[in-house]
């Protein structure tokens, strides 16, 4: 008898599992159920639809060959029966049935399964502040909301907007509204940085500055207290830093797994509210599988559960489920949380743990920041690429990587290559010699990712005694008693000496071997060059000459200026 | 007493080893010796200097901060003594001395060492054909030759040129001369494809076609018999396919390791003529280290020795040597041969073994070819990215990857991520779930590299019965008895039916479930769509309906047309 496969949820995981199962089992009866009328769309494309980069909503649920992925498409091409506008109310695990309700007619029915797949996704988190339900307060959880937002913006009704939440969706929506449509946009984030889950504070500060350069107002460490307005719409957002007038509020403050159905059925639920699954993506009921935004998976760095609502994972998990429900045996071993994002003309990518996350997980974590050209420095059109590596001091195990630059694919390339190794728990030597391809249009002979590993090894080995650029700006620079040794040229140092006076010392690197005796030996010296490389070499030289109290400013002038565009322009 | 470190060879490996050793050992006496007057230059940048992308030769031996890396620079900044114009004649391993000759004065001298490093590099291979020493016959082994070539081209003396050798240097020089300078260039390659060491024949055919689109004449399977001309210069090249008139001949026919000094000293030399080194980059003499283009290293796929003269490896090996000669203990475990190249508007990247190399190494090798968009297919500006994976059928171990596309960094990103895993001998499941970053500006949710692994797994599992696009073009298409089933739209199939007649069947994929009975069951059917995806699905459907004799044309119409631009335009 044909196996009865019932799949609840039709955005990413569900359709993928359905199609894979169909290809392996030509006889199975496969039914895909979704509350919505639209299914199988590229939800991550919503910001690009709102921005106008993607003209029509259909583009997000069409194949490469412009076939609309609607119920008829699934019926004809995939031989999968689709029931849209249908809500799953209850699972009877003993009888192996699901009770359904037709959302148009209210009629209830029952469907039986041999194997059930839950791909119920996640819902946007909206903090329960007063006014959260006013018209003009939006989320971007599905296509209908996206179409609604875009039509309002396109009709010229929205002069200004507040985006609440500086995660990926928040940032992408911020760009979407301000870049093309010219909506005056304010980004409000509760934490002291954007992308607080994904990255440490340096690169996010660079993004924040870049957003400001693009006319976006960024308010971090800001809490939303109330949405202002009435039944005619939103008039503003009240925060603990004051009122922001606006015509629209968009919540991008993270999502929560849709676990109600699983919970009611008594399936195991984890600490983040996600359904618990094993490496075969099977729940605590061996006839029920789950994946995508409604499950927790294993963090491959810490071994602990993690919640990563990402469309890429949903698709890969969906295929594994499709194989397993058709009688196969594939594993999904977890994830390290590889992430990438384009924000105007900058791109960032990251994988693994941030420094703070690594410390919280019990590692003796240390980080190194490197700046190098994204291609051969003699090749035209090269630009700076910044890489941060996080490792454990004792075992030298690599725990995370972050990168930022203007050439997005090149930024992502470095992170993807290191991300591939993170599940193997490699140490820094593996990154020193990581065999990324080399030709001048693509990389330096010693690639920036190799250089970043070498820089962090030097820190761990005590050859480089670093100070974080953010600490340099926040603590060293304001303290008149600290001495900075600038080993760049006199021409570069003079403007700094005009601002910081006598405590800004300057001996160019080439003169250091004969002039080091001019330097005080009893005071801490903060050594600075343009990127941190020559200051490191100078530190090595000075240490050989008996200096003991040296700090190398990681990333040098370049990174400090990117973190604070006013650095070196005024006191 | 200060350790005496002598390093022979000053291009890539030597300077890197010298500088690293200096930073670890402030007291060592470090001497760097080179025959040439120019050192520490980016040799791989030579084609970009010749093309004019890089204006001045100095740019190739300057730092990011425009300091010239000349002997004075090494003396002042690195405290490394440099002896240029100095040839190393002999090594006395017992006395630990090297006999030197000053190439200006002819004067000989001796230098003693505690530890010696050989970074003697490689020399271009010039086949011993008649006329190889005529004026106008060039190599691009060093800066002087590059400057010479560029000045001749710039002065307008060179109307046409022949480049001998379709490896990386040959291809880069071909583009350099034809793109900016408009030199009529013919590329001559002995093998039946360009890049014969690096890639299988599909993607190289695409490159060859792209070169032809850019006015380069490509002659593969062509042997150079003689260089024509006299003491006034070259007038042409005689090949087994006829005479090619030209004003300049450039040899890019590979390099051979400079092993004479090591050989004379009795050091172990390997099967490729490279110096044998262990994982610490130490030769058969424990006081002598070697690296870069003059050594053989371990192929991490096969475990066998390999010869990979690449600047990136030289730099990474140089750092390992620098650490070890200063008393440290680092390893260089070998390489998988990651490679990338830009040719006009196409880029290719590759790592590991080609199908033929894998078979020769004893693997039961099988390959899969996939085509997918390089970013979300709904994101503006996306383009096709082609990936080929090679794996062992029995163990499913991944043995190699090749990629081609127009967005170079994106092409390289996919290969670098897989290359990182090759030394770990992972199987295809690791690539199916490879956690590359996803956002619509960078990738599809199921990235092309994941899709490529899934496609190859389907082949190995017998779900997809592929025919290589090159075999389809060469064997199937010319054979009037073979039937092609085109599952694209009627509109796309009609032009093909006009050319190929009744043997070009057409049932669009959506009609196949109700029309499959129109197809003959007793004949082999070659199923075709645009990329190989819908033809695979159709094959699955037909097999479920009892068809047994099916072949899926890998890469579909798209790849076949890229391999043969005339495919589908005439009989």
From TrEMBL, chains A, B:
GO molecular function: oxidoreductase activity
Keyword Transmembrane helix attached: no
Domain Rhodanese: 494-569
SUPFAM superfamilies, per the entry: FAD/NAD(P)-binding domain, FAD/NAD-linked reductases, dimerisation (C-terminal) domain, Rhodanese/Cell cycle control phosphatase
Annotated protein name in UniProt: NADPH-dependent 2,4-dienoyl-CoA reductase, sulfur reductase
PROSITE patterns: RHODANESE_3 (PS50206)
Cofactor: FAD
Keyword Metal-binding: no
Coiled coil: none
Gene3D superfamilies on file: FAD/NAD(P)-binding domain, Rhodanese-like domain
Pfam families per record: Pyr_redox_2, Pyr_redox_dim, Rhodanese
Family recorded in the similarity comment: Belongs to the class-III pyridine nucleotide-disulfide oxidoreductase family.
Organism: Desulfobaculum bizertense DSM 18034
InterPro entries noted in UniProt: FAD-bd_OxRdtase (IPR050260), FAD/NAD-bd_sf (IPR036188), FAD/NAD-binding_dom (IPR023753), FAD/NAD-linked_Rdtase_dimer_sf (IPR016156), Pyr_nucl-diS_OxRdtase_dimer (IPR004099), Rhodanese-like_dom (IPR001763), Rhodanese-like_dom_sf (IPR036873)
């Amino acid at each position: 008898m044909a196996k009865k496969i019932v799949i609840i949820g039709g955005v990413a995981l569900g359709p993928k599992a359905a199609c894979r199962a169909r290809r392996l089992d030509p006889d199975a009866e496969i039914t895909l159920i979704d509350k919505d009328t639209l299914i199988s769309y590229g939800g991550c494309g919503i910001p690009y639809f709102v921005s106008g980069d993607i003209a029509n909503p259909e583009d997000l649920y069409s194949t490469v060959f412009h076939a609309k992925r609607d119920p008829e498409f699934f019926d004809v091409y995939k031989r999968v029966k689709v029931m849209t506008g249908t809500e799953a109310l209850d699972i009877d695990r003993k009888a192996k049935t699901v009770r359904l309700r037709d959302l148009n007619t209210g009629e209830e029915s029952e469907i039986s399964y041999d194997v059930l797949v839950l791909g119920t996704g996640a819902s946007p988190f909206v903090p329960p502040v007063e006014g959260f339900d006013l018209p003009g307060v939006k989320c971007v959880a599905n296509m209908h909301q996206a179409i609604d937002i875009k039509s309002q913006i396109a009709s010229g009704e929205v002069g200004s907007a507040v985006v609440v939440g500086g995660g990926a969706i928040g940032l992408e929506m911020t760009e979407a509204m301000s870049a093309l449509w010219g909506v005056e946009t304010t980004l409000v984030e509760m934490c002291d940085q954007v992308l607080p889950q994904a990255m440490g504070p340096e690169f996010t500060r660079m993004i924040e500055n870049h957003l400001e350069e693009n006319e976006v107002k960024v308010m971090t460490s800001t809490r939303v207290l109330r949405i202002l307005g009435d039944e005619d719409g939103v008039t503003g957002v009240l925060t603990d830093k004051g009122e922001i007038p606006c015509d629209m509020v968009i919540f991008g403050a993270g999502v929560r797994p849709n676990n109600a159905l699983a919970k009611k059925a008594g399936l195991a639920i984890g600490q983040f509210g996600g359904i618990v699954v094993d490496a075969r993506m099977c729940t605590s009921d061996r006839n029920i599988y789950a994946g995508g935004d409604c499950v927790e998976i294993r963090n491959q760095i810490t071994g602990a559960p993690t919640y990563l609502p990402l469309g890429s994972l949903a698709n890969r998990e969906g295929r594994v489920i499709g194989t397993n429900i058709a009688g196969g045996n594939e594993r999904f071993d977890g994830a390290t949380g590889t992430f990438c994002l384009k924000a105007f003309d900058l791109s960032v990518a990251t994988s693994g743990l941030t420094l703070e996350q690594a410390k919280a997980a019990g590692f003796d974590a240390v980080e190194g920041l490197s700046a190098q050209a994204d291609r051969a420095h003699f090749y035209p059109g090269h630009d700076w690429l910044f890489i941060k590596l996080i490792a454990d001091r004792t075992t030298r195990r690599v725990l995370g990587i972050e990168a930022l630059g203007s050439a997005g694919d090149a930024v992502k390339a470095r992170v993807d290559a290191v991300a591939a190794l993170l599940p193997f728990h490699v140490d820094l030597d593996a990154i020193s010699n990581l065999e990324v391809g080399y030709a001048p249009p693509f990389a330096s002979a010693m690639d920036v990712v190799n250089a970043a590993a070498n820089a962090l090894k030097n820190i761990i080995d005590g050859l480089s005694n670093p100070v974080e650029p953010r600490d340099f700006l926040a603590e060293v620079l304001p303290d008149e008693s600290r001495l900075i040794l600038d080993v760049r040229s006199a021409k570069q140092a003079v403007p700094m000496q005009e601002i910081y006076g006598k405590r800004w010392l300057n001996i160019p690197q080439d003169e250091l071997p004969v002039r080091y005796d001019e330097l005080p030996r009893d005071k801490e010296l903060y050594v600075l060059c343009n990127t941190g490389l020559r200051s490191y070499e100078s530190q090595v030289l000075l240490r050989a000459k008996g200096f003991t109290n040296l700090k190398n400013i990681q990333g040098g002038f370049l990174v400090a200026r990117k973190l604070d565009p006013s650095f070196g322009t005024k006191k």
